[in-house]
Amino acid sequence: MRFGIATFVTDEGIRPGPLGAAVEERGFNSLYLAEHSHIPASRESPYPVAVPCPTSTTARWTRSSR
Fold first, then answer.
1. Domain residue ranges of the chain, discontinuous segments joined by +
2. Could you read off the pLDDT of 11-42 as tens digits, one per residue?
3. 33 with 16: CB under 8 angstroms?
4. In 3D, which of 5, 45, 44, 10 has the Cα closest to residue 23?
5. Whole-angstrom Cα distance, residue 60 to residue 66?
6. Cα separation, 39 vs 47, whole angstroms
7. Could you say which DSSP state residue 4 is in?
8. With bands split at pLDDT 50, 70 and 90, how would you rate the model's confidence at 8?
């Protein structure tokens, strides 16, 4: 059986090159990265919901941050 890794890359984590090397080193068969992994570099525009803009990557995808 073949196993792979699927993730998205942000400015708060490992870069794609070192991640690919680590995945290969650990014997995984493939690495899939999200197509739209970019996150705005500045917050000049207001966050479009009533709560403050989250600061951590994981908070961006939780129900409580919507």
1. 4-37+44-65
2. 778 899 999 999 999 999 999 998 765 566 66
3. yes
4. 5
5. 8
6. 13
7. E
8. confident
Residues in the chain: 66
Q: Is residue 56 a contact partner of residue 13, using CB atoms and an 8 Å limit?
A: no
Query: Which residue has 């991640």 as its token pair?
Result: 19
Question: Looking at this protein, which amino acid is placed at residue 53?
Answer: C
Beta strand 30-33 pairing with 4-7: parallel
Please report which confidence band the pLDDT of residue 65 belongs to, taking 50, 70 and 90 as the band edges.
very low
CA separation for the pair 13, 22 (Å, rounded): 13
